[in-house]
Amino acid sequence: MRLRVIDFGLVPALRSQAVFHGIARTITRDSDPVLVMSSPSEPYVCVGMHQQIDREVDEEYCRQNNLPIYRRHVGGGAVYLDRDQYFTQFIFPSSKAPKRAEKLYPLFIEPVIRTYHDLGINAQFRPANDIHVNGRKIGGTGAASIDDATVMAGSFMFDFDTATMARCLKVPSEKFRDKLRTTLDDYMTTMVRELEKTPDRHELRKKFLAHCADVLNVTPQMSEASADEMAAIEKAEIELADPEWTYLQGRKFVEMGVKISAGTHLTESAHKAPGGLIRVHLLNNGGRIDDLMIAGDFTCLPPDGIDRLAAGLKGVELREGELANAIEKAMNGLEIEMPGISASDLETAILGAVQPSE
Known about the structure:
This protein has helices at residues 13-26, 53-56, 59-64, 101-118, 162-168, 174-187, 191-194, 201-216, 227-241, 243-246, 248-257, 305-312, 322-334, 343-351; strands at residues 2-11, 34-40, 44-47, 69-71, 79-81, 85-93, 123-126, 130-133, 136-140, 142-146, 149-157, 219-222, 264-273, 276-285, 288-296. The chain folds into two domains: 2-242, 2-Layer Sandwich (BirA Bifunctional Protein, domain 2), CATH 3.30.930; 248-351, Enolase-like, domain 1, CATH 3.30.390. The N and C termini lie far apart (58 Å). Strands 10-11-6-2-1-12 form a six-stranded mixed beta sheet, sandwiched between helices. It has a three-stranded mixed beta sheet with strand order 4-3-5, sandwiched between helices. Strands 7-8-9 form a three-stranded antiparallel beta sheet, covered by helices on one side. By secondary structure, the chain is an alpha+beta fold. The protein is built from 14 helices and 15 strands. The chain is globular.
């Protein structure tokens, strides 16, 4: 099977996201899989599919420092990105990719790990979707379904600006921000930290493609984006820059809030699960779910599954055990995958929003 490899090189911040979003929209069942590679020519902040920007990002700092904020169609957390990250985005027809996330992540992460090994970096896969070096994170990955395509996004970490990352995130105090910076320095590593000399990007790509061929059983061939793909990329740029998309989760929250009436209470909670932070906004009416919004830095496949799950739980009694059973049944029926997030985790997050007096 041929793997088309399109290396866009340095591109504007918005295009670095739009290239894989756009090409994914052109994929059909019979398409060759595509590997897109790029780096942003200027820095920006990228938030996960299900995150609330006002809870995760210091928007004022970003405005003052000309850092645009874009929402991607892939799960995970808010991250500061710049030219020191070399993005890798596999775009496969869904029919040619593993169906389950527990098989998807290890398969597409393996070529990255082998490439790091070639460079002398002791990288290891850490479930559900991270790459670690001697206990420090050197990269995370995210998966998404976009139309008929399965997307697996990751990067090679040449360097990482922990100071700016800590500044971009919303935190309760400056003391907490200082602790966040120290934590990032302790928890993360990069090629700059691990190697005396970082590799040339062309050589790194050559090693990476050789491992892609071996692990994925494909024949990588350098390619260029077609006219149709470029048109789709340009359309994706417009969609990703639309404030209606960027502030999607905030709009949902406002829509929930206006529904409050006598006997209905809007409350919130957060729960940290192995697969990420879960944020819940709950409209509780008489001990049952009247409306529900679930956000956070987790991965959900398909991406709209979390909203369909929340809608399907309306009317369910807010009782331990009964709620988890309803969540499990709904997730199975909707064929939802949330790596590292169980029905019990979701129940804990939702019940955490129930006021004690209720």
